[in-house]
Structure formats: structure tokens, C-alpha cells
């Protein structure tokens, strides 16, 4: 066994005489795993009652003959043209109320009985035909679920979902605050999906009733989850054991992946960062994906070996970057490294998307040579990292409900984006070398010394008590501006801000000042001054110690950052939109108290991560995201398992992996770790 290596292969797009060349090159590049059939529904089912498995049979037979493992897709990521023509209910109605015709992908209404029937049927037939095939190691349902539909079928499904959630119109009216603007509902059939024709103006984030829109976001996520469940159930009738997954998209707003996690046997996701300067953002996405199932390793289902083709500009991965980013995924919990795509398609919208094999089918390109070299490294590594977990003592809370609620709210600032705040605090933890989990607000917290909760706008499910228990037991909790504002229905707490968190944080917030991005109010902490922007809460200490103060405006000299002693621990509140340097200053103090600063915490471009194998062996990954060589401290130097060489200087885009490094985190002062 070893890390599966390969990716998305679509040989149905070109003549069979090309297939032999592909597999010869796959051998050369150490490719052992292929994802096939992702968009073959139109070939597999060319008519309502017609099935043709000849193409899929040939693809699977050829891959098996070459000794490759297969992740077999159900092909339901886009429905066939005949289906849209004969069964128009399968196409979506968009936010503007326009009924779509056949075209593109992500074009299926999740509430359509016809789509649900046909998608489950084709998944079941594929599973019945190939279940038990020795080459199949996973089932791939759908593809990159997303989007939304606002048709009459979804409206009816929404009403059913609401009946199940609230039980009565009285409870629904109370949750949605419908006494506002004469919105009281007296019948379920009066409820409409929130769209440009009903509650919205200026797009999906501007709504008259946040509660209605929030529930529709929840409903649509659940509706697509129902589609996944339909297909998984159909597969399970023939194959009770092989893992079933679908490819998530990391930091993707429309779907609450926490609501999906229990239904996936393994988490897989597609890593397409917005630019080539996103190492920290990718680390957050990896950590989020790993955290979906309690730290279980995930599959990197897709990444480009070179360039994407879906944006206005598409930067090329520089030499060494593909290798670096692949090892970063492994460092954060990936048990598979797969690409899109194996061979470049000749036409349509992805013909310029990067591929392991280009249109000319050459093996002497830089991209192919890098893919082959990484394949050789993974072959040498073998099973060493499979099943290994991250020994995290730091948790960062991530909450889709808070994301949605904050960004559909009118006030206090449209410029404050949930993901920006989360990224800022995760980046500080990442730069300082903390091994951390990114977890839902429902997860147990008793195994963590530090819990960071950026922009925890919504507080629900007894979370306030669980955070208080962390601090009371000697840990540290960090919260930020806009936390503790609303309940699970997005209604404000009838109490001082930050609501249920007030006692833990030891503060009261009566006012906030939201400004344009160019406005800066300096915040001074421990004699050092940092910029802050966008939002400035006027924090009134109620037992908390003032750590940072504002430097301008009528609230100059008042609290911006506080620390409250709670039980044997601390609770920090950051009331200002601190610069990255300011956030890092706070997080450094927090980590130092618990002895959790990483061994390369003072090297800004160097990332470290630890995984512990099932037999207890610790593996330390060291990655240089910088463009210059870095002299490593003793704690990050050693004999590299990938090269066999002693590493004391790590080059640009360099990667080193050490066995049993006897790593001792730098304490930077402070008290010993609690656990």
C-alpha cells in the first residue's frame, strides 16, 4: 500500500488508440489510481430506458489490465440533454426567477422527482455492474455539488423542510421575526423561497429577512445532501463496504460541509487556490476538510499539476510548487494525491486547463517530469503516512451558520467578511507552527488547550458553556469582534453584547464604529502599535484586563483588546479588525502560555506540521514557501526521509520529512502546557 497517486481521467473524450500511450506514460509517472466516469451519464444512459456500459467497461478493463486502482464515479455531475428535453423539471430556476434549459453543469434541480429517480437509478445500475471489482477502491458520487434552485418544486420542498424544523407556523413566525414589515404567515403555502423576486435586492446577500434566507441556505444544502444520500443508498444495495465520497471544494460558502460529514465514508476535496500566494489559505482548507470527520485523513481528489483555466488570469505553478503544495496536503492529512486532469481535453471550457499529459502526449515537459518525480517520492515513502493523524492541542472553530448570518446582515459592515477574519487568525496559528484542528462548533472541546473562535457571530447548542469549561480548566479561549450577537435563528440576544459569551470574556460592547477600508485606528499592545481597520468595537471591561487600546477618535485610550481570567485559564476578546501583525501578536502570547509555539515560529515562510502514525510514530514535515534558502534551527533539521540526506538548509519550495524528531515546542516563556 501507498498514497494513491493519479487523478481524473476521461478517455471517453478521445480515440482508443490514445489510451495505450496514456497508460505507458502513467507507468512512467508512477500513476496508480484513476478517477473515471465523472461525466459519463450521457454515454452510460443515452435514453430514459437505455443503458450502455460499453465505454465504461473498456475504460475499467484497460485500467485494470495496467494494475491501477479505480475511483469509480456515478457520472451524475451533469444530466444528459434528453433528460432536460423530456423531463423539464430537472433543470433549475435561478435566483432571478429564470427557468433554465439544458446546458453547462450544476444544472439539476435537487428537488426534482425525475432527477432524483434517474440519478439514483444510474448509480444503482453502475454499482450492480461493478460491485466487487478488485480494482475499485472508492465510489465517487456526483461532482462538486453547489449552486441553488428557486423553482416551484424547491418551494414545496422548502415548506416541507420548514414544517419538520419548526412544527408550527407560530414557531416559524417567532423564529423569523415576522411581526416586522407585516410578514406574519398564516398558511404554509404563503411562504416563498427568498430570491430577487421576493425578499432580496442587490443580490443574494441583501435580504429583508435574514432568518428566511438563512433557512433557505440550510434547506438547499440539505436538499443536495439528499441527492447524495439517494445515490449512496443505491450503491449500498450492491456494495456494502467500499468507501463512498464526493469531492468538496474546501472553503465553499453555499454548502455546509459539516452537515454532510457523517454521510461520507471519506472526505475528499478539490484544491484550486485563487492565486499562487495562498499557502496559508490552503492550509486552512486542508485543516477544515480533515476536521469534518474528527481528524480522519482525507483525499486530495483534484489539484492542477500546472495551471487552472476558469479565471480571468491563471498563474502557472512555478518549478517545485506542485511538489510543495502536494506535500503540504499530505502534511495536513491527505491520504491521496490526485490531479485534474490526467490528459488535456481537446475542446470545450477546460481545454487549456493544466494536465499531467498535454495535447501532444509528451513525457519531456517540465510538468510531466515534476509529476513523475513526485510519484517516485511517494513510491519510496510507501505506507508511512497512511492513517496518520494530527496531534492538535489547538482548535479553530468554523461555522457555516455564522458565515451565512454575518454576510447577509445589514450592518454593522458589509466590508467585514467572515472568511477574511477566519483566515487572519488561522494564518497566525499556521505561521507560528501550531498543530491545530479546524472543527465545527458542535465538536467536543475538552481535548484542546487553546480554542480560537473568529467572528463567532452565532452562538448555539450550548457552545458558551463548553467554551467556558475550556478556560475554567486552564485553557485559553480567543474571540473577536462580532461574536455572540445572534441565536440560531439570527435574532439578536436580548442582553449585553457579547450575549452568552459576556461572563467568559468579561466585557460589554455597547457600540461599534464601522469605517471604510482606508480608515485606520491604531491599537497599542505591550508598547507596540498595530493598525486596525473596518470595525472598531467600543469595549467596556467588566472584569477583563485591558491589553490593547485605541489610539484615535473619541474612543482613543479605551479598550480594543482584553484578557479575562476565568477559572484557571484566560479568555481574550479582540474588538478591533487588527492587521495580520496585530493578530499574530495576540496569538503568539496565547500559544507561548501553553508552550505551543512551533520550532520554526520565527521563520515567516517556513511551515511545520506533525502527523502521528497509527503505531505512534511522529513525523515532522518542514516546508519552505519562500523564494530563498532558509537556515533551519536544530529542531527542524535532520535526515530527510525523502532524500536520505541531512538537511540543515531548506531551499526555495523545499520539503523535508523527518522520523521521530523528538520535537519540543518552543515555550517562549509562560506556563507549561495544560495537557
TrEMBL record:
Pfam families: Glyco_hydro_42 (PF02449), Glyco_hydro_42C (PF08533), Glyco_hydro_42M (PF08532). GO terms for molecular function: beta-galactosidase activity; metal ion binding. Transmembrane segments: none annotated. InterPro entries: Beta_galactosidase_C, Beta_galactosidase_Trimer, Class_I_gatase-like, GH, Glyco_hydro_42, Glyco_hydro_42_N, Glyco_hydro_b. Keywords: Glycosidase, Hydrolase, Metal-binding, Zinc. It comes from Actinoplanes philippinensis. The keyword Transcription does not apply. Residues 392-596 form the Beta-galactosidase trimerisation domain. Zn(2+) binds at residues 109, 149, 151, 154. Substrate binds at residues 105, 143. PANTHER family: BETA-GALACTOSIDASE GANA. GO terms for cellular component: beta-galactosidase complex. Its EC number is 3.2.1.23. The active site is at residues 144, 302. It catalyses: Hydrolysis of terminal non-reducing beta-D-galactose residues in beta-D-galactosides. Residues 8-379 form the Glycoside hydrolase family 42 N-terminal domain. GO terms for biological process: galactose metabolic process. Residues 605-659 form the Beta-galactosidase C-terminal domain. Belongs to the glycosyl hydrolase 42 family. This is Beta-galactosidase.
Amino acid at each position: 500500500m501507498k498514497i494513491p497517486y493519479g487523478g481524473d481521467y476521461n478517455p471517453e473524450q478521445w480515440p482508443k488508440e490514445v489510451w495505450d500511450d496514456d497508460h505507458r506514460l502513467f507507468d512512467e509517472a508512477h500513476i496508480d489510481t484513476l478517477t473515471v466516469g465523472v461525466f459519463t451519464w450521457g454515454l452510460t444512459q443515452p435514453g430514459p430506458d437505455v443503458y450502455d456500459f460499453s465505454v465504461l467497461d473498456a475504460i475499467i478493463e484497460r485500467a485494470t489490465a495496467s494494475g491501477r486502482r479505480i475511483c469509480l464515479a456515478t457520472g451524475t455531475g451533469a444530466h444528459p440533454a434528453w433528460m432536460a428535453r423530456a423531463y423539464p423539471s430537472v433543470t433549475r430556476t435561478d435566483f432571478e426567477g429564470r427557468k433554465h434549459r439544458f446546458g453547462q453543469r450544476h444544472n439539476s434541480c435537487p428537488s426534482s422527482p425525475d432527477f432524483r429517480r434517474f440519478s439514483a437509478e444510474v448509480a444503482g445500475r453502475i454499482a450492480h455492474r461493478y460491485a466487487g471489482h478488485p480494482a475499485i477502491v472508492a465510489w465517487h458520487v456526483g461532482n462538486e455539488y453547489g449552486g441553488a434552485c428557486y423553482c416551484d418544486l424547491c418551494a414545496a420542498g422548502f415548506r416541507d423542510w420548514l414544517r419538520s424544523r419548526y412544527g408550527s407556523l407560530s414557531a416559524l413566525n417567532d423564529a423569523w421575526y415576522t411581526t416586522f414589515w407585516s410578514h406574519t404567515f398564516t398558511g404554509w403555502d404563503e411562504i416563498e423561497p427568498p430570491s430577487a423576486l421576493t425578499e432580496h435586492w442587490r443580490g443574494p446577500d441583501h435580504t429583508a429577512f435574514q432568518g428566511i434566507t438563512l433557512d433557505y441556505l440550510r434547506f438547499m444544502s440539505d436538499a443536495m445532501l439528499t441527492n447524495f444520500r439517494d445515490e449512496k443508498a443505491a450503491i449500498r444495495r450492491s456494495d456494502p463496504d467500499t468507501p463512498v465520497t464526493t469531492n468538496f471544494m474546501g472553503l465553499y460558502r453555499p454548502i455546509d460541509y459539516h452537515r454532510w460529514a457523517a454521510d461520507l465514508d471519506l472526505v475528499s476535496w478539490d484544491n484550486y487556490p485563487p492565486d499562487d500566494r495562498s499557502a496559508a489559505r490552503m492550509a486552512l482548507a486542508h485543516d477544515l476538510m480533515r476536521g469534518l470527520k474528527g481528524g480522519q485523513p482525507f483525499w486530495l481528489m483534484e489539484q492542477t499539476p500546472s495551471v487552472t483555466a476558469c479565471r480571468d488570469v491563471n498563474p502557472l505553478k512555478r518549478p517545485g510548487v506542485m511538489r510543495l503544495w502536494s506535500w503540504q496536503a499530505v502534511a495536513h492529512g491527505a491520504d491521496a494525491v490526485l490531479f485534474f486532469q490526467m490528459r488535456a481535453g481537446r475542446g470545450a471550457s477546460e481545454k487549456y486547463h493544466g494536465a499531467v499529459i498535454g495535447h501532444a502526449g509528451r513525457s519531456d515537459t517540465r510538468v510531466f517530469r515534476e509529476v513523475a518525480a513526485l510519484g517516485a517520492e511517494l513510491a519510496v515513502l510507501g505506507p508511512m503516512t497512511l492513517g496518520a493523524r494530527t496531534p492538535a492541542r489547538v482548535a479553530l472553530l468554523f461555522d457555516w451558520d455564522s458565515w451565512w448570518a454575518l454576510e447577509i446582515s445589514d450592518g454593522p459592515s458589509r466590508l467585514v467578511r467572515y472568511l477574511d477574519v477566519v483566515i487572519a487568525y488561522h494564518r497566525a496559528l499556521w505561521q507560528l507552527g501550531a498543530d491545530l484542528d479546524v472543527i465545527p462548533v458542535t465538536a467536543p472541546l475538552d481535548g484542546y488547550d487553546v480554542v480560537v473562535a473568529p467572528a463567532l457571530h452565532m452562538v448555539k447548542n450550548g457552545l458558551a458553556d463548553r467554551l467556558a469549561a475550556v478556560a475554567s480548566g486552564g485553557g485559553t479561549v480567543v474571540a473577536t469582534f462580532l461574536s455572540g450577537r445572534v441565536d440560531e435563528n439570527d435574532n439578536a440576544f436580548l442582553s449585553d453584547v457579547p450575549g452568552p459569551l459576556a461572563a467568559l470574556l468579561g466585557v460589554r460592547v455597547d457600540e461599534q464604529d464601522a469605517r471604510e477600508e482606508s480608515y485606520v485606528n491604531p491599537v497599542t499592545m505591550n508598547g507596540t502599535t498595530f493598525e486596525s481597520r473596518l470595525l472598531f468595537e467600543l469595549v467596556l471591561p467588566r472584569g477583563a484586563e485591558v491589553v490593547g487600546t485605541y489610539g484615535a477618535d473619541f474612543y482613543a485610550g479605551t479598550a480594543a483588546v482584553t484578557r479575562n481570567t476565568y477559572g484557571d485559564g484566560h479568555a481574550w476578546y479582540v474588538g478591533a479588525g487588527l492587521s495580520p501583525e496585530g493578530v499574530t501578536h495576540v496569538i503568539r502570547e496565547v500559544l507561548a502560555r501553553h508552550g505551543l509555539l512551533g520550532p520554526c515560529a520565527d521563520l515567516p515562510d517556513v511551515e511545520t506540521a506533525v502527523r502521528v502514525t497509527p503505531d505512534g510514530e511522529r513525523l515532522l514535515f518542514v516546508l519552505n514557501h519562500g523564494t530563498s534558502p532558509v537556515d533551519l534551527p536544530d529542531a527542524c533539521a535532520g535526515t530527510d526521509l525523502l532524500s536520505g540526506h541531512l538537511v540543515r538548509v531548506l531551499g526555495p519550495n523545499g520539503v523535508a520529512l523527518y522520523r521521530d524528531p523528538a520535537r519540543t515546542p518552543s515555550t517562549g516563556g509562560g506556563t507549561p502546557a495544560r495537557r
